[in-house]
Amino acid sequence: MTSSSLERLRSELRELAEPKVRTQLERVLSPAADDELLGVRVPVLRGLARSHRGLRSVEVADLLSSRVHEERFVALLVLAEQMRLAPDRAARGKLADIYLAHTDRVDNWDLVDGSAPVVLGTWLLDEPPGVLERLAASTSLWERRIAVVATLTLIRAGRYGPTFSLVVALRRDPEPLIHKALGWMLREIGRHDERALADFLDRHAPGLPRITVRHATERMAPELRVRFVRRG
């Protein structure tokens, strides 16, 4: 039985849909054939998630099972809101369990990037990073990207080791979306500690995808950047 809160949220999503936004999303997301895009802007989805952050776990799971892209997105953003407000480690663990049980529904780059750092990354501040190795070894492109992007929260906490390990483990990944994500995370490390990034690239740049090195060095001084790009 669908709850009144879910019915209200679904109704709000449809009222806020914009045909022009749907057309843009169809172009940049390349959704699966069975996906339905409404065309709701991300800031609007974030606002809805804040106003519906009291959803129960069963309601979040219901949304995650939907074929409507924005319903899955807002469910993930609700999990993110709940993770931000979680009072203790046990509560964070329950939210992470919900997320990890539904990674097959986190199936496009916007869903991954909008959820993995806050939901999974926040949980990993308290936990050993072994789950990242499991996700990185997955046959699913999206689970591998979840592993990479989740480390953004660890990077911001000064913990670079998990990211460096994933870059080495995934350096031969066949998917450009993984190469770009690796470069993005390395660039974030460089924002906090350029020396740590430079030391890593001194050792590993020749074996990394060129696009990873280019993304990683975007913020470096030109003379330093060219040193690594030429080797990458």
Automatic annotation (TrEMBL):
InterPro entries on file: ARM-type_fold, DNA_alkylation
Record-linked Pfam families: DNA_alkylation
Signal peptide residues on this chain, from the entry's feature table: none
Superkingdom per UniProt: Bacteria
PANTHER family with a match to the protein in the record: ARMADILLO-TYPE FOLD (PTHR34070), DNA ALKYLATION REPAIR PROTEIN (PTHR34070:SF1)
Protein name according to UniProt: DNA alkylation repair protein
Species whose genome carries this gene: Streptomyces parvulus
Lineage: Bacteria, Bacillati, Actinomycetota, Actinomycetes, Kitasatosporales
